[in-house]
Amino acid sequence: MTRFIQWWSSLEQGVNHDWMYNVGLLLALSAILWGGWLLVTRRLSLIAENTRLIWDDALVSAVRRPVSWLIWLWPAVLSFGIVIDNTTSYPTTFLAVVRHLMVVWTLVWILLRLISNVEAGILPKAKDTTTINAISKILRLIVMVIGGLVMMQNLGLSLSGVLTFGGVGGLIVGMAAKDMLANFFGAMMLYLDRPFKVGDWVRSPDRQIEGTVERIGFRMTVIRTFDKRPLYVPNSVFSSIVVENPSRMTNRRIKQSVGLRYEDAAVVGKVAADIKAMLLNHADIDSNQTMIVCFDTYGASSLNILVYTFTKTVNWVEYQEVQQDVMLKIVDIVHRNGADFAFPTTTLHMPDADITMNSRQPNLT
Asked: Which residues form the Mechanosensitive ion channel MscS C-terminal domain (predicted)?
């Protein structure tokens, strides 16, 4: 074991040996390590599948591919350095930086895959998918920023200088890309205030925006209209418009005006009482909400009864079915009381007078 460690250290230090032998040995070692890694990850996958946790499955899946690439790339870089040392006079000190960058990128890759895997495991069971998407995006951004700073440091760049330049550059970029920054902070406000989430039905009285939210990104929100067209709305728009979220309604309202004939005035009160009794006993009507059934107005040709109530369901299709059932039962109540529905009529009043109408028959001969 000691000799192997000494041999491995000599490779990294560029000590001259039989370089072709060393390259072949490195490739063989890579193949052995890769095969062993596949066996280990396969075994770990079987163990993780037998647990109810999502973290172990996510972790095994996250490390499998990045470590496999590192097993091949690390010896490949060492082999490349051996070849350069023994065939050219070009310095190979830069390869040490390359190896450090490989390690950092592998860690970043693992963390990004882990975040994606955990997100995919949580989303199907989550009630608030919008928050999970927001957290995962923020975590990805943090990982990439930290990984980028570490890589810059490995390249010999001063972090203080980078941050100073970033402050000045950020001011310039902020002035040039103010719309993009406005959309980004608009997305942050959507994630924090949560006026709507993915899957909600939203609409705005200020703009021609109505549909189902499909995705909330850092720059724009995708809304699918009811005629199945995608609507791409910049996030900054939501800070200046009123947004209505009908998906969060607790009940749906039924508001109808039932018009009876003027000759049915004697039974208007009875019809209204029967309609209210029907609504109170209806299984799909929420009697805890406001319920109004009363003689409302005198129409031009009808006596109008206001029917105002709320359904228990908020589903649009179910609501239509409940409303249809209520309206059909109102028809039965009206007819059962000997009344009927009014329709626009015109009464012509003619005063008593002798009206002489002269008519002539056409001469057909």
From this structure: 257-341
Residue 354 resides in a domain: no
CATH number, domain with residue 326: 3.30.70.100
Residue type for position 7: W
Q: Which domain holds residue 119?
A: 9-155
Residue 80 lies in a domain: yes
Q: Residue 317: what residue type?
A: V
pLDDT at residue 86 is higher than 90? no
Question: What is the Cα–Cα distance from 6 to 197, expressed in whole angstroms?
Answer: 59
Taking CA atoms, 253 is separated from 7, 242, 267, 272, 291, in Å, by 81, 22, 26, 18, 10
- For 149-207, how does the pLDDT look when each residue is reduced to its tens digit (9 = 90+)? 888 877 777 666 656 655 555 555 555 456 676 777 777 788 777 888 888 999 998 88
pTM confidence score: 0.55
CA 191 – CA 197 distance, rounded (Å):
9
Three-state SS for 293?
A: strand
Q: Which contacts (CB < 8 Å, 24+ apart) does range 290-295 have?
A: 295/268, 295/269
The answer to whether residue 160 is domain-embedded is no
Count of CB atoms situated within 10 Å of the CB of 37: 16
What is the secondary structure of 178-227 as a DSSP string?
HHHHHHHHHHHHHHHH-S--TT-EEEETTTTEEEEEEEE-SSEEEEE-TT
The pair of three-digit structure tokens given for residue 258, joined into one six-digit string: 């039932």
Q: What angle do CA 68, 74, 75 make, to 5 degrees?
A: 105
Same domain, 57 and 105: yes
Q: Which amino acid is at 147?
A: G
Q: Two tokens at 179? A: 């719309």
Residue whose structure tokens are 């592998």: 106
Q: Which of 195, 218, 247 is the last residue of a domain?
A: 247
Counting the structural domains of the chain, the total is: 3
pLDDT at residue 5 above 90?
no
